[in-house]
Amino acid sequence: MLDNVTFANPEFFWLLLLLPLAVLWYFYKRKEQVASLKMPTIKGFSNDNFLPKLKPALFVLRLLALAAIITAMARPQTEDISTRTKTTKGIDIVMAIDVSSSMLARDLKPNRLAALKEVAGEFIKERPNDRIGLVAYAGEAYTKTPITSDKSIVLSALREITYGQLNDGTAIGMGLATSVNRLKESKAVSKIIILLTDGVNNSGFIEPQTAADLAIEYGIKTYTIGIGTNGNALSPIAYNADGSYRYGMRQVEIDEPLLKDIAEVTGGKYFRATDNEKLEAIYEEINKLEKTDVEEFKYFRYEERFRSWVLLAGGLLLLEWVMRNTLFRSFI
After folding, report:
1. 117-126 pLDDT, tens per residue?
2. Predicted structure pTM score
3. Is residue 62 located within the same domain as residue 197?
4. Which residue in 28, 133, 195, 217 has its CB near the most CB atoms, within 10 A?
């Protein structure tokens, strides 16, 4: 009966201290009321009737009824708590992903693109209150998915990103400009781009600096990530006869000054990922830097439970009255 129960007026439980006093008073008065009769012998008196010995049960019933009434006065209640969250500072994020052939280099395991997709997928799952979109770029750029709050769509689109969907090359300016275009109409309080590349800008008709100026104009912060080891990496260098890639060692060239400049002028930060662990750490840091403010509201619903205690007290008093006027009538 008391599972998950709270009391609105617990101070009434102090009245339970009266019960021991009532017990003491009962035995004191009972002792005073006992009459003594001296007789030379008790032979001939039968002692088969046990009802007089049970007479204190009437007093016990009254005590239990009083305890139930006090409990009812304390107003027992069951409490139902429901929670609702409200996002007060939503963030719109576009992830611009380089899908040029060099992203198949194997300095990250199993290769740069696969490693990126795995880490980016975890990043997306950890942003439940934000809208996220994807832009893929190589020699040109296109929107893989516009910004959306449906993470299943974004994750599905991320899994579909592969090399060969675009002309080869590295159009950093195009990738950044396309990302800005997806965010320029956004009403979000915070808008960010996470741009990742493993090379230098060598394609496209929009210069990276021009795209960065557009990001500044629309108040879009850009985090840039250069992916690739220092030195040489096992990279695609030619096609085999069956159409597969032939791999060989190639110098890793990343335009870090450009990426640092884009990040700096837009209020973001540049990172360098030379292995899987560093790439994962970078996305974790960005996740911590860009926090979404969420308010939590709790609603409490109370249901009164005193009625059952009142009924219990009434039942005990009724039982006491019936017993007093039937079984114990001759002994009162």
Report:
1. 999 999 999 9
2. 0.64
3. no
4. 195
Question: For residue 41, is it within any domain?
Answer: no
Query: Mean pLDDT score of the chain, rounded to an integer?
Result: 86
The bridge status of strand 131-137 relative to strand 141-148 is antiparallel
Domain assignment of residue 63, given as a range: 5-31+48-81+301-331
**Secondary structure class of 170 (helix, strand, coil):** coil
Kindly state whether residues 150 and 271 are assigned to the same domain. Answer: yes
- Cα 302 from chain centre: 25
Torsion angle of C-alpha atoms 256, 258, 262, 263, degrees rounded to 10:
10
Dihedral Cα 273, 162, 144, 126, nearest 10 deg: -50
HSE-up of 181 (CA within 13 Å, CB side)?
A: 16
Residues 84, 299: contact at Cβ < 8 Å? yes
Contacts of 240 (CB under 8 A, 6+ apart): 246
Same domain flag for 141 and 187: yes
Q: ∠ at Cα 285 (282, 291), nearest 5°?
A: 140
pLDDT of residue 324: 80
